Amino acid sequence: MTLNPDLIVRFSAIHRLQWEEAQQKDVILYPEGMVELNQSSAEILKLCDGSRKPEIIVADLEQKFSTSGLQKDIFNFLEIALKNGWIEQH
Fold first, then answer.
1. Whole-number Å distance between alpha carbons of 81 and 24
2. Average pLDDT along the chain
3. Which residues is 56 bridged to in the sheet?
4. Is the pTM of this model over 0.90?
5. Domain extents for the chain?
6. Measuring CA to CA, which residue among 76, 85, 79 is closest to residue 31?
7. How do strand 9-11 and strand 87-89 relate by DSSP bridges?
8. Does residue 31 sit in helix, strand or coil?
9. Which whole number is the average pLDDT over 2-23?
10. Which of 3, 21, 63, 78 shows a CA-CA span of 20 to 30 A to 39?
11. pLDDT in tens, 18-58
């Protein structure tokens, strides 16, 4: 699978994104286990709510953190998330 910038991104229904108090970080929970996320990855996945295309996620995060030039890193992470089944596109 390859990330399509023209399609909306949403978090997978078979995974759950939540704050894990024991690890003091956001995690992805799924039937086979858990993936610990760094803050950047969690911020990206929180915006995968089924209402945004990848470029809007980039714009929202650049605005939130008052920065620019995040597209390459965000697109790379979304590609990994898509291949791991954490997100879907429609």
1. 21
2. 96
3. none
4. yes
5. 9-89
6. 85
7. antiparallel
8. coil
9. 95
10. 3
11. 999 998 999 999 988 999 999 999 999 999 999 999 999 99
Superfamily of domain 9-89: Coenzyme PQQ synthesis protein D (PqqD) (1.10.10.1150)
Predicted confidence band of residue 72 (pLDDT cuts 50, 70, 90): very high
Position 31 scores a pLDDT of 87
How many Å apart are CA 66 and CA 27, to the nearest integer?
25
Taken in order 72, 47, 78, 43, the sign of the CA dihedral is: positive
Q: What separation, in Å, do the N-terminal and C-terminal C-alpha atoms of the chain show?
A: 13
Residue type, 89: Q
Q: Note whether 40 and 74 are within 8 A (CB).
A: no
Q: Are 48 and 11 in contact (CB under 8 A)?
A: yes
Taking each helix axis from N to C end, the angle separating 54-64 and 71-83, rounded to the nearest 10 degrees, works out to 130
